Amino acid sequence: xxxxxxxxxxxxxxxxxxxxxxxxxxxxxxxxxxxxxxxxxxxxxxxxxxxxxxxxxxxxxxxxxxxxxxxxxxxxxxxxxxxxxxxxxxxxxxxxxxxxxxxxxxxxxxxxxxxxxxxxxxxxxxxxxxxxxxxxxxxxxxxxxxxxxxxxxxxxxxxxxxxxxxxxxxxxxxxxxxxxxxxxxxxxxxxxxxxxxxxxxxxxxxxxxxxxxxxxxxxxxxxxxxxxxxxxxxxxxxxxxxxxxxxxxxxxxxxxxxxxxxxxxxxxxxxxxxxxxxxxxxxxxxxxxxxxxxxxxxxxxxxxxxxxxxxxxxxxxxxxxxxxxxxxxxxxxxxxxxxxxxxxxxxxxxxxxxxxxxxxxxxxxxxxxxxxxxxxxxxxxxxxxxxxxxxxxxxxxxxxxxxxxxxxxxxxxxxxxxxxxxxxxxxxxxxxxxxxxxxxxxxxxxxxxxxxxxxxxxxxxxxxxx
Length: 466
Fold this sequence. Notes:
Layout: E1 2-8, H1 12-23, E2 28-32, H2 39-44, H3 46-64, H4 80-104, E3 108-111, E4 113-116, E5 121-125, E6 131-141, E7 145-147, E8 160-161, H5 163-166, E9 175-179, H6 183-194, E10 198-202, H7 214-226, E11 230-232, E12 236-243, E13 246-252, E14 258-263, E15 265-268, E16 272-274, H8 281-284, E17 307-309, H9 320-334, E18 348-350, E19 355-360, H10 363-368, E20 373-379, H11 384-389, E21 395-401, E22 407-414, H12 417-429, H13 434-439, H14 449-460
């Protein structure tokens, strides 16, 4: 069988690339080695983690906040197995939706491991050992990433686990030790803290969410600490040992003192790495960099002209929405269109509570680039909407060019900022100034008023409600 485009991998990047290519008149096949479509994000990543975050958030509110709203619930309890079952149903519905999209768009789906025979032929090895070969004028590699590990840690996937296992534990840990203070570790740590576990986050850097704006990291750590999560930043993990059901993590602090942490589960959340195993890239000469990522040009084209790569398997932020945009870009490029993607305006989000969201440059990046900027900050506590809901933690910070007033970065901590950040992204896409954003009438009372006020603070230093 011959196709215009073969997509290897059905995660957000792969399936979106397939859909867009089909919409543009291409004959498309998609290959997925697992029995369900959707990749990491839908099966063992974004979607199931958000399902557990929402379930645990409801319980946490019942325990800690209902009383102040005049709602009495005596001794609220939870059924962890039901939470896990609900998560599984959410995943099943979502992945089923991808299958529907494949059928709707006449995309042929092949289950099995895809590997290159040559630059135009892909072999599909099925679970029963049989195989078939299909031909494609162009191929898009969208095989995503897998959890990374430290070389000295042995993952038994029972007590020493990755994010995949953390989404289906048989019980709530008594003490969960999280190695890594990034997005994955903080989100899953929040889930289990809300359900009663002790949680300790061990982070090598001097702050959590190391790549985010320093003010954001500081505020988030303060709020999560108030919720009961313990933090050990500036700690370098040296060993992880299991003895029965007890896990011992040894790490050195900045004074080079050896510190021990003991718990019953250890989540290793030190990032993710590109996944290219079994593709046969070496057979056809596709280049990869020192981190194992597929090397591409500005069109996401590899050194083999008819082979492209998108998402976590190439350089850049490992985010589902970044993969989706790249999938669209490649599909449109192959259809002769002239798409673009602005990598500076891909939002980063942490789904703790309060949420964290950011787009554009951090203060640290602006300082390093020697760009003159001004900053405006507005506290969520000053909003009527925040006081009404009881979500008063956090702030919005707007960074703007000191000379032109163009918005260069927006950083938020607060309720629903995962959705709110898109107001900033839209404004920045059209190169709006802080004054532009400040002069737009925002609904009252809403969380979005914090964006208006922070923009005004950046523009003229005179927010109205602070």
